[in-house]
Amino acid sequence: MISNRLTAQRVRPLLVGGASLVAGVLIWWAVAALTGIPSYILPTPGSVVNRAVELFAANALQIHIAQTVAEVLQGGLLGAVIGIVLAMVFAHVGWIQRLLMPLIVVAQVTPKISIAPLIVLWLGLGIGSKITLITLVVFYPVLINMLSRLNAIPSTLKDLARITGMGPVRRAFRIEFPFSLPALAAGLKLGLLQGVTAAVIGEFIGAKAGLGYLEKQGQDNADIRLVIITLMLLALIGYLLYAVVTLIEKRIVRRFD
């Protein structure tokens, strides 16, 4: 009985999500096919799928997908590491937090589309400028979420660490990291979603490959189907990254439990 309930709880969201997706595609098809809107403004789903199949068959999408995924993964990893390290440092050394946090906030409130041209001018059109921009976007939600969780550690746990003579490294792995894991995962999921957007911004400004670069080409050539394809691929990448982090979070939490 319990296993049946657990199975139903896992399957129901998939069914609801699948039904929503199908409904959305049907509405899209009805609007495109039955309202007389020109295909160069709103093509049908079938037309978009055919175009995507043609591009995949010609190996015209794979390099751009690989480029954007590589940028997001590398920038996301760097951003996560920087966010975790800064959160740990800030939680234990208050004067460093007071010194650096205003600079971090200023960097974050500045629109990334305004920072991107400067980074591209400094680092060029290659992958380095995109990774830098993504790192800048990812580390902040990781930092803020993890720091708030670290500051919320109960005093009893802190007293326990002090009484048992735990060193900084042991305390970090035994108490602080497990306690802050849910907040860390939440910050990473948010950061990666923003990182996909940052990758597109960087590729819009200046790039030699990537889905943002490809979308810009579709816009410049009035290829609405190519623009829609790149948007769908970007959405899929963001969703898969979110799902992977969620899966890893559940497995790590289970191990700590």
What is the count of helical runs? 10
Oligomer: single chain
Span of the ends, CA to CA? 24 Å
Mean pLDDT: 86
Strand content: under 5%
Tell me what the CATH architecture is: Orthogonal Bundle
Largest sheet: none
Please indicate the count of domains.
Answer: 1
CATH superfamily placement: MetI-like
Rough shape? globular
| Helix and strand element order | HHHHHHHHHH
Unreliable segments of 5+ consecutive residues: none
- The helicity comes to over 70%
Return the CATH topology.
MetI-like fold
CATH class: Mainly Alpha
> What class do helices, strands and sheet pairing give?
mainly alpha
Radius of gyration: 22 Å
Number of strands: 0
